[in-house]
């Protein structure tokens, strides 16, 4: 009888341990690849969102800046400008076309520390400064370390003046509301007046008359003026508008995400409530291109508090600092340069940030008027 050989069936303990070790190594590699891919995807998605937001923000800003001083016929600084508004409010200065205010501590090369939970303050505070007696609008709350600028222009639709009856302007149909400020331009004189009423006192959006008589309204109302000096065949009438751009927070709450806002000119020559353009804008820095040689091109760019003459500003250089909505994009704080210096980002701050810059021409000061 032959002896039976003892054949091994299955794996030994050592082989099993080696297999488990190899499996663990492979699994760790797969997890690392997955985590890296997930992080890359998160960064790409956040970056794409920020870039799209930047395009939208600049499309809004550019569309208004390019209309600056668009009062019809000629640029405002070539006309005799008269405001009939019976007001002592020194913020109503449409003939300036553009004004701006530089935030303290944000000159080119100054280091900036993003503060996620920073408060907003009234822009009438001393944190913002300007030149040539530029006046800030009260009751606007903005984020510090971000510049502010204001543009004056008219809404696109204009109408031809057909006749004048006393202190009533008559024209082709235009959309008016009670209290709207009119721009009346005959290519020699540029007059700003408040709409006190329309035909039959009904400003219904298809209006052909505007009453600007001093006795017809009083908030602020109009001063007396001899309208017979207007050259009717060349006179155009349009509705005046303004846009005050600033970075603030929704409901002025420090805990909310910083956003780019705008306030427009409303009835009675006062600014409307702020409108949010885009959230995630942490800072806006503005440089002003001044033309000192009369060739319609900027000779240099300066901060708002260094502008020599606002009538010589022909372009803006605007930089926006945008951040992601989520604070988990990076494992460590990002390294980024903004406004000529590296940002001082806290170690616990893992937001993605990007800087976008655009140079925008004030077309109505660059077309040879």
Report on the structure:
The protein is an alpha+beta fold and 369 residues long. It has one domain. It contains 1 helix and 19 strands. The protein has one helix at 13-65; strands at 80-83, 98-103, 120-122, 128-129, 141-143, 148-165, 168-174, 181-185, 189-194, 207-211, 236-249, 258-264, 275-279, 281-290, 300-302, 313-323, 337-338, 341-342, 353-361. It is elongated and about 115 Å long. It starts with 12 loop residues before the first helix and ends in an 8-residue tail after the last strand. The relative contact order is 0.18.
Give Rg in angstroms.
Answer: 30 Å
Distance between the termini: 121 Å
Average of per-residue pLDDT values = 88
Number of strands: 19
Total domain count: 1
The low-pLDDT segments are none
Strand content: 25-35%
Which class do the helix and strand fractions yield? alpha+beta
Note the main sheet: 11 strands, mixed
How large is the count of helical segments?
1
Topology of helices and strands:
Blueprint (H helix, E strand, L loop, with lengths): L12 H53 L14 E4 L14 E6 L16 E3 L5 E2 L11 E3 L4 E18 L2 E7 L6 E5 L3 E6 L12 E5 L24 E14 L8 E7 L10 E5 L1 E10 L9 E3 L10 E11 L13 E2 L2 E2 L10 E9 L8
Parallel strand pairs: 1-9
Antiparallel strand pairs: 2-4, 2-6, 3-5, 6-7, 6-11, 7-10, 8-9, 8-11, 11-12, 12-13, 14-15, 14-16, 16-19, 17-18
In short:
The protein is an alpha+beta fold and 369 residues long.
């Amino acid at each position: 009888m032959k002896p039976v050989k003892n054949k091994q069936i299955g794996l030994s303990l050592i082989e099993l341990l080696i297999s488990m070790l190899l499996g663990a190594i492979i699994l760790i590699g797969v997890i690392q690849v997955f985590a890296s891919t997930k992080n890359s995807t998160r960064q790409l998605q956040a970056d794409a969102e920020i870039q799209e937001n930047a395009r939208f923000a600049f499309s809004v800003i550019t569309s208004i800046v390019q209309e600056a001083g668009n009062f019809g016929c000629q640029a405002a600084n070539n006309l005799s400008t008269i405001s009939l508004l019976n007001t002592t409010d020194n913020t109503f200065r449409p003939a300036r076309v553009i004004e701006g205010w530089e935030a303290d501590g944000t000159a080119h090369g100054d280091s900036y520390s993003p503060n996620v939970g920073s408060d907003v303050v009234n822009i009438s505070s001393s944190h913002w400064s300007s030149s040539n007696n530029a006046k800030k609008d009260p009751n606007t709350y903005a984020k510090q370390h971000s510049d502010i600028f204001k543009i004056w222009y008219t809404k696109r639709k204009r109408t031809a003046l057909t006749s004048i009856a006393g202190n009533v302007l008559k024209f082709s149909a235009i959309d008016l509301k009670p209290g709207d400020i009119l721009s009346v331009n005959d290519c020699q004189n540029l007059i700003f007046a408040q709409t006190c009423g329309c035909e039959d006192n009904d400003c219904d959006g298809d209006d052909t008359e505007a009453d600007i008589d001093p006795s017809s309204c009083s908030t602020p109302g109009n001063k007396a003026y001899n309208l017979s000096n207007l050259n009717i065949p060349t006179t155009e009438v349009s509705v005046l508008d303004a846009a005050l751009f600033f970075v603030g927070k929704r409901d002025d709450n420090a805990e909310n995400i910083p956003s780019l806002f705008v306030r427009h000119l409303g009835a009675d020559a006062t600014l409307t409530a702020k409108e949010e353009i885009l959230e995630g804008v942490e800072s806006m820095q503005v440089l002003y291109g001044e033309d000192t040689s009369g060739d319609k091109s900027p000779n240099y760019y300066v901060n708002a508090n260094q502008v020599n003459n606002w009538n010589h500003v022909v372009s803006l250089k605007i930089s926006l600092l945008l951040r992601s909505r989520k604070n988990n994009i990076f494992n460590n704080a990002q390294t980024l340069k903004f406004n000529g210096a590296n940002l001082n980002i806290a170690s616990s701050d893992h937001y993605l940030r990007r800087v976008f810059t655009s140079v925008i021409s004030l077309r109505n000061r660059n077309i040879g008027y």
